[in-house]
Amino acid sequence: MGLYGPPNGGKTTLANRICEDWLGETMGSVSRIAHETREIQIKEQIVVKSGNKELMFNLVDTPGIATKIDFEDFMKSGMKKEEAKKRAKEATKGVISSIKWLDEMDAVVVVLDSTKDPYSQVNITIVGNLAARNIPVLIAANKVDLKKSNIEGVKEAFPQYDVIGISAKYGNQLEDFYAALFKLLD
Questions:
Q1: CB of 11 within 8 A of CB of 3?
Q2: Total of domains in the chain
Q3: Global confidence as pTM
């Protein structure tokens, strides 16, 4: 199962939450600066339990997919020019890698920041690619702990999929998320 979405939607935070809940460890580092995850990260054989059911899967945390990566955006976050150029190059490679890995996915959780417009070019592109490949999808509308969260807006944008509002950071509504995961992967 892969975690896909735009940069800073909370993919790695959710991956860390899943791994902490079921393995007692984290998966990757997070940052307020976009493209902290620039390489595919995999945790194998995660076993999730719900009632008397068990579900085992490999978790793939992917770099955020973006249509534009500009080193100057990283400089605005305080990076020096050389570091910003390096990060932009690595982020671009990460986006390409994320797209290539779609062919390996049995199911995908699209992690979206529920405080942002769900109709972005990146979100539509991701969901369109998944639909074209007939990959089962669950949408995690993340950041419900923030006042600007708009889960209904995400549901309206993607009515063909189950949308679960969560806070990966604080663990809010994770039981609903795990139940939806069982439904997705069953």
A1: yes
A2: 1
A3: 0.88
